[in-house]
């Protein structure tokens, strides 16, 4: 299957974009410290001509945000967090869903009740569900601080948990169909154990679908992250910083990790005055989703080809 | 049949209750107790859930359904036009829409909002209000925004279904009888495609509900999703059920309808 994938141009292009974004982002810090914050632009005679945020025409290629931080650097730096979270959580979701549905299939014969129960998640958007679970976490962290690493882990667990039930429903349906096939029944009558059947027969059959679902889950998580950014729920938590002079102090939530949705959420109030700060990270979300979609269509080509055989 | 729906509804209600207790399960009771059961919070103030919720529910559903219908209309028109085009152009259009499909909903919402404001600043022409002010409700712009992504998805689905349908034997029979391509598409193929579209109703609904939520948040519309975000406990359960009960009924009906359709088809095939 992997050999076939390497022959799909769509898959390769998508894969290349994602991997290069990741590598540039991971390697960036060791080579380059990042540009200095620029808060003012001066005219030739030394007077101030412009104040941050600068548009992409003032400071190419992407401009800066209100604190004068270079958006291009922030995007590249943040790519690793966003992409790794999306891919990692998608992976965790799939692995745990497959394990659960193997265990759960062995125990329950009639799973309509569970399926109907999971139907209820249709009516609560994943964003609201995640928000509900993460806000108490933030409130808790104000009274007794949670370390950055622990925060990220807890949030990833929450993101994982949200997606598991519907995946379990899909998998247990698939497994049930496979287990009812004739050759499985004959394998069983030859004395094979369930574990052996799962490993040798069921897993290879759902493998192409696993790849497909992995990519789809990654897209869903990327969109979920963008939404959470707008709601000012940042992965990695946020610090409260005081801004303005002493007459007009405002508390501002500053995301700790430089993740894309953090950039969006941090500057969301400026959507009409400086739209590029929001649109450029969203554009990168678009690029990542597009490349994952390309990978999906490459995968689908192979799956339909193999079926025709 | 009705008892099956009753059972399903009961499990959905249990599911919603479980969801509403999740935060308490993780983080203890004390944080969740702060709110009265019949209230929702908005901008730091508490409002009573009833009778506000009826009005907000109607408002959100108007936007959702209007957007769905408009999106469906757009998708079908584009599909129909593209069937009349040559094959190579069709492929280009399809590829273009595949690219558009990757656009995050937020991106579309913000691009439209920013461009309307920019047009207003430049020319003084206000295409539509982009934010709710006090009690006046806006319809045009949210509906337009919400309809774009479903239109793209529906286009892709109908296009694929249509191509599949075009290869079926009855189309060839109709062609050999001398009917024109346009006639066959409108009178026979489109009808069958519409029936198959029902299979995707759940996916489209989930997708649109999530879009509706972020739309309400960005445009500052006070609809049912805003309430859902700002409630806890009992009030949350009630709000979700407001959405869940009518739609689960609708899905049940659709499921039964498509089942009957399939039975019909099987009988015809036999």
Mean pLDDT across all amino acids of chain A: 82
The CATH class name of chain A reads: Mainly Alpha
CATH structural architecture of chain A: Orthogonal Bundle
Q: Return the domain count of chain A.
A: 1
Number of strands of chain A: 4
CATH topology of chain B: MetI-like fold
> What's the number of helices of chain B?
10
Greatest interface and its residue counts? A-B, 43 and 49 residues
In total, the number of strands of chain B is 2
The helix content of chain B is over 70%
Based on the coordinates given, report the CATH architecture of chain B: Orthogonal Bundle
Largest sheet of chain B at a glance?
2 strands, antiparallel
CATH class of chain B: Mainly Alpha
Separation of the first and last Cα atoms of chain A: 14 Å
Radius of gyration of chain A (CA) equals 24 Å
Q: Count every helix of chain A, treating DSSP H or I runs of 4 or more residues as helices.
A: 10
Low-confidence stretches of chain B: none
Please tell me what the overall shape of chain B is: flat
SSE topology string of chain A: HHEEHHHHHHEEHH
């Amino acid at each position: 299957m992997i050999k076939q994938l390497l022959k799909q141009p769509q898959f390769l292009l998508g894969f290349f974009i994602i991997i290069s974004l990741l590598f540039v982002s991971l390697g960036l810090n060791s080579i380059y410290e990042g540009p200095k914050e620029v808060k003012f632009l001066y005219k030739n005679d030394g007077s101030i001509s412009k104040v941050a945020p600068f548009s992409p025409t003032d400071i190419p290629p992407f401009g800066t945000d209100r604190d004068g931080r270079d958006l291009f650097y922030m995007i590249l730096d943040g790519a690793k967090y966003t992409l790794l979270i999306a891919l990692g959580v998608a992976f965790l979701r799939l692995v745990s869903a497959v394990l659960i549905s193997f265990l759960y299939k062995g125990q329950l014969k009639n799973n309509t009740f569970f399926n109907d129960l999971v139907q209820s998640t249709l009516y609560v958007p994943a964003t609201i569900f995640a928000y509900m679970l993460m806000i108490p976490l933030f409130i808790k962290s104000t009274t007794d601080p949670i370390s950055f690493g622990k925060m990220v882990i807890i949030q990833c667990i929450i993101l994982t948990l949200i997606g598991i039930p519907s995946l379990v429903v899909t998998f247990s349906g698939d497994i049930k169909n496979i287990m009812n096939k004739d050759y499985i029944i004959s394998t069983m009558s030859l004395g094979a154990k369930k574990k052996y059947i799962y490993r040798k027969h069921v897993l290879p059959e759902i493998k192409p679908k696993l790849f497909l679902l992995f990519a789809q889950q990654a897209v869903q998580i990327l969109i979920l992250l963008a939404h959470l950014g707008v709601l000012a729920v940042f992965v990695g938590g946020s610090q409260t910083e005081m801004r303005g002079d002493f007459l007009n102090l405002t508390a501002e939530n500053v995301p700790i990790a430089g993740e894309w949705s953090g950039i969006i959420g941090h500057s969301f109030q400026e959507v009409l005055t400086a739209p590029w700060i929001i649109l450029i990270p969203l554009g990168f979300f678009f690029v990542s989703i597009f490349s994952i979609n390309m990978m999906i269509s490459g995968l689908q080509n192979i799956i339909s080809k193999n079926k025709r055989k | 049949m009705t008892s099956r729906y009753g059972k399903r509804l009961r499990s959905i209600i249990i599911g919603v209750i479980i969801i509403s207790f999740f935060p308490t399960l993780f983080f203890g009771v004390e944080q969740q107790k702060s709110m009265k059961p019949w209230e929702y919070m908005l901008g730091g103030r508490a409002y009573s859930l009833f009778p506000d919720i009826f009005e907000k529910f109607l408002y959100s559903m108007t936007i959702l359904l209007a957007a769905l219908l408009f999106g469906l209309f757009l998708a079908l028109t584009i599909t129909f036009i593209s069937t009349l085009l040559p094959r190579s152009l069709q492929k280009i259009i399809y590829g273009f829409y595949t690219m558009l499909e990757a656009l995050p909903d937020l991106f579309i919402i913000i691009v439209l909002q920013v461009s309307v404001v920019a047009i207003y600043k430049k020319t003084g022409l206000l295409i539509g209000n982009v934010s709710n002010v006090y009690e006046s409700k806006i319809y045009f712009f949210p509906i337009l925004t919400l309809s774009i992504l479903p239109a793209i998805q529906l286009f892709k689905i109908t296009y694929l279904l249509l191509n599949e349908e075009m290869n079926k034997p009855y189309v060839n029979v109709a062609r050999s009888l001398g009917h024109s391509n346009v006639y066959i598409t409108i009178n026979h193929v489109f009808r069958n495609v519409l029936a198959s579209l029902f299979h995707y109703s759940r996916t489209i609904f989930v997708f649109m509900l999530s879009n509706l939520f972020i739309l309400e948040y960005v445009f500052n519309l006070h609809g049912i999703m805003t309430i859902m975000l700002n409630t806890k406990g009992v009030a949350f359960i009630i709000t979700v059920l407001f959405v869940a009960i009518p739609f689960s009924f609708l899905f049940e009906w659709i499921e039964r309808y498509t089942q009957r359709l399939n039975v019909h088809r099987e009988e015809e095939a036999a």
